[in-house]
Amino acid sequence: MNTDTFLKDILAFREERDWKQFHNPKDLAISLVLEAGEVLEHMQWKNGEELEKKLVADKEKVGEELADVLYWTVLLAHDLGINLEEAVAKKMRQNAAKYPPHLAKGSSAKYTELQGK
Amino acid sequence: MNTDTFLKDILAFREERDWKQFHNPKDLAISLVLEAGEVLEHMQWKNGEELEKKLVADKEKVGEELADVLYWTVLLAHDLGINLEEAVAKKMRQNAAKYPPHLAKGSSAKYTELQGK
Amino acid sequence: MNTDTFLKDILAFREERDWKQFHNPKDLAISLVLEAGEVLEHMQWKNGEELEKKLVADKEKVGEELADVLYWTVLLAHDLGINLEEAVAKKMRQNAAKYPPHLAKGSSAKYTELQGK
Amino acid sequence: MNTDTFLKDILAFREERDWKQFHNPKDLAISLVLEAGEVLEHMQWKNGEELEKKLVADKEKVGEELADVLYWTVLLAHDLGINLEEAVAKKMRQNAAKYPPHLAKGSSAKYTELQGK
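^ Those are the sequences you sent over. The predicted structure of the assembly is below.
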């Protein structure tokens, strides 16, 4: 999907309701954390096969929570003048440097452990 | 930006490191919550003008945290078979129904309060 | 342990540093969430036996994160004029009503499912 | 309040419902994070005087969320064999070392900034 189109819709929605006044970065970031928590809530108390079944049953709802996370991510980036595409490209370069395949393959260790830092 | 291109990069990165085995949905959702927390951490203890200055200074780093949030959002959606584009479209329709402009304009009330539910 | 003694120490610590001015409820609650996240971070990516071993190894550090959580809980309650002892007693009565043993025994269902609400 | 008495009540409650089987540390820590999020949710979108009023009105409910946070903190400490009283004492010693009054007084800087680390 295209996050720029999504952002345009979000900004039009906000404009129409005159909500910019409430959208300080701190409250946007709080929304992001709380919506991420709602995603996690669907995974709570179940494990293994039982969790897999629940996630199939909850698929539609988890999708809505992930859409909420995406909503605040895209809007917060916009309000702070952050270019998400560049940020993501930079992150991928960093990850590649932190976790070179020959060290990281099949390991769940953090890069600080992997590289003996 | 295009999240499908991003997803392809993420999946190639994971494949190369054989990390699919660690990526159960619960741990992915935990990562999402923790990265959202790192975004919020940049807003902690500062307010008003002081916060604004800090966010200008931290722009690059906040961008990296938002890239992390996007990373787990896109990957978790993929692993659960969720179509983010559809989820986002549905969410926008729901928001429009919950917050009609004539009721919501200029108000920070929740839809349950707005509509007297 | 006695949370009132702990609270006295926290208040003396704050007073000595003149930090009351930074302690608005929103930033205290943010701290609470972030410290709870640090507890969870110790459980990330590991499961089963591997997680058990890690938690034995990390016991000291997890204890420090839990102490941080307790710190903000006790301080936030104080600043909002909340009596934690009463709040806890009320919560236990609510839990007992929501989860009567004859319905809840051996079940991980939420009370809304349990009681067909 | 005495957290040992509270812990006894929690353990009796769990025993009666045979819920120990669901209480792995990861799900307990997830509960802790989600309940901390519910505390923060009461502070969302409001600021200044408006937030103060809301917190007076929501006092009872915020108390219940803080009781939930305390619940999982005390139970998780117990299940991991952590002595909260010792952890708290250690934390207070660390805080005193990180934030000596002559450096920290009236400053919201992190100890790493304060001490030029």
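Chain C has a mean pLDDT of 95. The radius of gyration of chain C is 18 Å.

Shout if you want it in another format.
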